[in-house]
Amino acid sequence: MYQLSRKLDLGKKLFLIVLLIAFIFLMTTNTVSASTIDDHPNLFIAQLESSSDLGREFYVENCGSCHIPIPAEVLPTDAWQKILEQPRDHYGENLPKMVNITVGLIWNYLRSYSRPSLEGETTPEFVTNSRYFKALHPLVDLPKPSSHQSCKLCHPAAATLDYRSLTPEWDD
Length: 172
Prior knowledge:
By secondary structure, the protein is an all-alpha fold. It has a domain at 31-124. It is built from six helices and no strands. The chain is elongated and about 70 Å long.
């Protein structure tokens, strides 16, 4: 009798754990509105876009708390992967611990919007070494030394990932 009650307790515990995991998953994903479904008859695609939007929000919130967020397109996918896989060596800093679900959503966003490396391309360590960055800034005389904080000199809304808004001197 004792073993039967012990098995039931274990079964109840497993059920509660599965229920808790399902609840956490549902609470961390965006709900899909009717307008989203109308825009995308394929609900799966609508959910992926919703997840990517949430990943972008987490990226801006977490990474933007220490520095301006860099657009995903500027660095190749493998550079973002290295940053997320080595949080204890982020340009000499230790990144704050993030929940795995948050890291997963950020990775989904970065992987979806970053670019692949070209064959033989060296993974840039810094944004200013990125071929994408160089192609977008051919006439810009960058400050020496430049950092990701230098972006705000020309992109006043960079903190919200708005790099299209420029200061008046570049807005022509």
